[in-house]
Write a structure and sequence with these properties.
Helix content: under 10%
Strand content: over 45%
Structural class: mainly beta
Radius of gyration: 19 Å
Shape: globular
Length: about 270
């Protein structure tokens, strides 16, 4: 497939899949998805790649995210077809083609003549939560004076449709740019979203969890993932007991050696 970029992998009981931004077609990259299968040597390889949209892309499609549900496969990505970046998604029922792409991020309107046709979004992440529930989180600049904030949206039908956008951050966190979201949840644990920001003068990892259909907790500094230095790029997972597992990158100083840390939080 040439110089594909931004690959991501997701797996579930229905199998494993990989998505990436394929080489430019009509001047733009497009999102493709392929199953992960075993070859004759029992290694893992990708099967035939499927285009998420059949028509040639009219604008760049970048940085995909995947989730595998009992109903099928959902893919989301950054898309500039409307003249500014939005998050789009498509759903493929098991064994069927992808549905037409739909927007996940709401159109917040123009930020002003200096800032183009609308606010920007970037780096969407997806996670199957429990049952038919899927969560999406991304960086969103609709409040452009404070930089990116973290927003989320949820699907209750396996990834076919996503509901209204929800701000994840609290009022203290709104003043500083937020980066690198992660999302996870399960049948025995509320949805949690993590990211990093520098509200305390350091790059620290913060956590918020869903307390109601449209409500979120105050931001909590992830234990151990704060203080002097740089803590960033969190990843989250929830296990069958409802425990939260988090990993993040840490550096004592900018451009210094990078270490990987892990934190386990018990559900009580």
């Amino acid at each position: 497939m040439g110089d594909g970029r931004h690959a991501t992998v997701a797996a579930g009981a229905e199998g494993a899949f990989v998505a990436w931004a394929a080489p430019r077609e009509s001047g733009n990259r497009r999102i493709v998805v392929a199953p992960v299968v075993r070859d004759d040597d029992q290694g893992l390889v990708t099967g035939a790649a499927e285009r998420v949209e059949t028509d040639p892309p009219q604008a760049p499609q970048l940085y995909p995210a995947l989730a595998v549900t009992a109903e099928g496969l959902v893919v989301a990505w950054e898309d500039r077809r409307e003249g500014h970046t939005r998050i789009f998604h498509a759903f493929a029922p098991d064994g069927a083609a992808f549905t037409p792409a739909r927007a996940v991020s709401e159109d917040a309107g123009k930020s002003g003549a200096r800032y183009g046709k609308g606010s920007g979004v970037t780096r969407v992440v997806l996670s199957r939560l429990d049952g038919s529930n899927v969560g999406a989180a991304w960086m969103d600049k609709r409040h452009y004076k404070s930089g990116y904030d973290i927003y989320a949206a949820f699907s209750t039908d396996g990834g076919r449709h996503f509901g209204p956008n929800q701000p994840v951050f609290d009022m203290v966190g709104q003043a500083d740019p937020d980066w690198h979201p992660a999302i996870a949840g399960g049948a025995k644990a509320p949805v949690a979203v993590a990211w990093d920001d520098a509200r305390d003068g350091n790059d620290d990892v913060w956590l918020s969890w869903r307390t109601g259909p449209k409500a979120w907790s105050n931001d909590l500094a992830l234990p151990g993932a704060g203080g002097p230095g740089h803590q960033s790029h969190p990843a989250l997972a929830v296990d069958a007991r409802g425990d939260l597992h988090a990993a993040y990158l840490a550096q004592d100083e900018e451009n210094g050696p990078t270490r990987l840390y892990y934190v386990h939080g018990e559900r009580r």
